[in-house]
Predict the structure.
Amino acid sequence: MDMHLFYTGESFDSYEWLGAHIKNKATTFRTFAPNADRVSLILENKEIPMKKVANGQFYEITVENCPENTTYEYRIYRWNSYVDHCDPYGYGMELRPNHRSIVRNLRDYTFKDNKWMSSRKDEKNGPVNIYELHFGSWKKKGEKWYQYNELANLLIPYLKEGHYTHVEFMPLSEHPSDESWGYQNTGFFAPTSRYGTATQLMELIDKLHQNGIGVILDFVPTHFALDSYGLGNYDGDALYEYPHADVGVSEWGSFNFIHSRGEVRSFLQSCAHYWLKEFHFDGLRMDAVRNLIYWQGNEKRGVNHNAILFLKNMNHGLKKLHPDCMLIAEDSSNYPNVTLPSEKGGLGFDYKWDMGWMHDTLDYFQLPPWERPANYHKLTFSMHYYWNESYLLALSHDEVVHLKKTIINKMYGDYQDKFAQLRAFYLYMIIHPGKKLNFMGNEIAHFREWDEKRQQDWNLLDYPIHDGFWSYIKQLNKLYLEHPAFYEGDYEKNSFEWLDCHQEEKCIYAMIRKGKKESLAAIFNFSDKNQTYSLKLPASKKITLLCHSEWAHFGGRIKDDGSHIFKNSSMDILLPSYSGILFSLK
């Protein structure tokens, strides 16, 4: 590790020197504790003094015959007292409530995904349809969790059946509280032991890649857990966090990282590089970016320029090291140029979640039909600002918890109307420009809000209307992959056009996505009345009906589900209430 780069916040490989490293039969332990009076290694409950090395701010000890899976922690002495801490750079940790670090050998696994790694892309002009998943509550083995490699045999067939391109795991770094969902970490380099070891996680990712599925990890560069054995007051002083509570403690009751310190920036960006390099993750979704851009996430408190600089440098460095990775910002702010490359003055992300689209669209569908004409342009507003960033449309875990209701339960009306609107809603989502993300359970019309303690209600698929909806989602996802017009011009203005966005009283919308060899047109009736509409499409040699949200085998009201070829580009179409229709134009 280059000391100058470490202190100036330019290091991306500090984890290769700090932490516990096995070489032959010996293990070398190193930790950074500049304010400590002295440091000891607690190895299997035995205290071993460590010696100062380098410039005296680092501590080191080599232990002979220290095998993999040995537990350890550091005893940090300051002011005639001490606190035992897990290793900030440790590659493994015990299952809560225990908290010691575990010696791991990252070279135990050999990846077999060379074909995938050599051909992957950030997919700006390709299909991206992400299935977001919380590892511990997708499926459970009775009351127990599946291990990383065990879940592969269940998850891969499901993702392939659903025609998803990527899976995104909510944070897998070690965290003490299940209820934090992984967003309050203690072991930033340690895959949570809830689901197994680092080697087992590598096996899962390897198998996903061999089956053509990309893997994205939620990464938390903003804050960390308060637990005394973690990063807080690590060497007796605030080392990773701010020394003052007004900016040091986040809205979630956790410590905010102090991004003005080069050592902290090196810690975080080395961690990001670690997950991409050692585990072959294809991208990182970075959590709570708004809280990095603005002090405490509050625009009125001003821009945090040190955190902005950190984001720019980290993203620039990661793209140099991994040009084909995907860097995704979960950012609810209006801060400009989030997806502009850092060398051009932007933050350097590839994608930004379109939170405005999500809120406006879900707000619209919760309205009763008689209020929709006055709110008609909630569904057109997104295209006024869409070209400012490279957006990703996300219906994430945050939208189905904390009494917000699940996506289907947000739909206005009775049981049947909810399903009809949900089908039309997802057709609208898939033809709208932008990459896609859906949280687990949305695809089977989950009525119960997500609970991290319980697996998904898979018995819903025993009910025809839920099974029909899952069939509908699979069909939409399949069409998305088969028709490049859905994605190849996602960030080109000439790829999208409103055919009609001024049917305020009728709540009818029509739009077109223009591809190189084919265009796709969709028309929607979001009112509660059946209506006839005169549709005028661009002149085409062949107009084919691809999908109708009301086909019976999806749970709808129309029995004729065959494909139809139309000879004329102008036609009168019967639009059932709460419905959407998709056409191919060649």
